Amino acid sequence: MNLKWTLLLACCFIMTHCKNGQEPKTLIPLSDMAIHTFEIKDPHSNANFNEVVVKHLDWKAEVDFDQKKIKARAEWTIENKTEATKLILDTKGLAIESVYLNGDQETTYTLLDGDKLFGQPLVIDIQNNTKTVTIQYQTSEHAAALQWLSPQQTHDKEAAFLFTQSQAILARTWLPCQDGPGVRFTYNAEVNVPKGMLALMSAVNPVKTNETGIYSFQMDQAIPSYLMALAVGRMEYQALDHHSGVYAEPGMLAKSAAEFVDLPSMINKAEEMYGPYRWGQYDVLVLPPSFPFGGMENPRLTFATPTIIAGDQSLVSLVAHELAHSWSGNLVTNSDWEEIWINEGFTVYFEHRIMEALKGREYSEMLASLTYQELIEELDAMKADGQWADTKLKVDLVGRDPDEGLTGVPYNKGYLLLRKIEETVGRDKWDGFLNTYFSTYAFHSMNTETLIGLLEEFLISENKAIADSLQLRQWIYEPGLPSNAPVPSTQRFLAIDELTKQWLDKGELTQVMKASSQWTTHEWLHFINNLPKDIGIDPLMQLDAAMALTQSTNAEIQAAWYQLCIVNQYEEIYPYVEEFLVEVGRRKFLTPLYKALMQSETGAVWAEKIYKQARPNYHPVSYQTIDQIVPWK
Ligand SMILES: [Zn+2]
Q: Which domain holds residue 26?
């Protein structure tokens, strides 16, 4: 694999070697960054991991599509740090059948009442000599992590499909576990699925469907429970190079592989910047359209929405994002969900750096400008909705669903903070810090206070000018965007603003049409997102007649365009909105579209009608959000 990146431990320095023969850059001394440990307190887990902690999982499971259940045996190897007499695991909706210690010694256990959000703690009596705890159990049909799709709900419409989504605290709905990001374990698994189907996990994966329907998995690198993942269905594999490739339903495979052709170069660019990819293989699984997120960074196997398959590689920055998580998130992991900006802010920053390395600064500045505008609009909306306290980077989620912290703030405000640090201390120094940070804290947890300590120690030290310029604590602990925030800008967007103004002033669309023939998806998004929100139906119809935006097959453009049309009650396009909302389950698109529909009387009628039809296609992660927006019962 790519080993241009070399650690020269002998002199205790990290050196990066430029391909073109330039002098290597001297970065931060590696030996100076020590690992600071801290006690993890996780408000979203009932597990007693500070007393007894799970180290390894041996999982044997049968996937039953008829009953929509997983029947499984989870054998945990534990480390009892405090001579504790009980092991407490998180569960939610699991039917526990039996619990054994050291393989064959039956033990007593209690499934406590728990609550709606965090589930039922499973309290198991253990002994001093207990090395393993084996739990026989079944999932319930309401397991929120499991999405069971009928053949009709898949792309190829030929076979049923199952995929999991464990982040943030849903692993406990299919595995009794210590369900917090601060606990890591290795695992083996043997999964029995219907014949003709392939099973994949966040582990070393098979590349072919076998005749028995029994698949074995091994994951030797310790991961937290939210990165446990399973997909079962009719899938095929196409390699992109010797250590990356794509899985998809057969009917989606060729398109998907063509879209991700840059993936091997992305991996190389990422490694050149921030050190070796530590997980061996990197594959992407393109899921059926009901996947609620853009992507999920399951180790070795990113899960991705098919809505990024645009046919022109214009939306693959999402894969750069998931790949970047192989460092920020999967290697260095937020210690609990109040710290999620440490996963997501670093990842958006890294994603933009990968795209810059791949496509140039102008391209990544378009991404950054879109990110910035999205953040400004979201901050305004959060202020109006009384969610201002959640615009802090370190957010208070005690007693709340950690999903509520999953706004754009940890992503985009986090990104801007890291960009601010880069601009203040200089890119070389900042890259040196990140390199050392990822290698020192690999397979460890990180929290905000430890991170601030590291930033102060290595980048700010006694330099008052840097400290004053950054205002680190204000960024992290105060709501809103600090006045020193960088404002990304690009000539390509400014040119669009000028053309838009001319069109709206004079009604003449020719110049816009001429320029737009060369636009990338990002330029289209900037154009649509910056049209006046109350533009009215006539200009929308003029645009649509000239450019057929309603018929776009690019999901990002569709979502932005449909939203603007709905706000302006351009009702002719509603059948297209309906088709989109029934087909696509990605929450990022659903939320603003349903919200926009609910703003008018006719829209609300449509929304209710569409939602009734679409809700069975959505993942619980999505419908739990939309249930708050559209009445459906
Ligand atoms: Zn992410």
A: 1-32
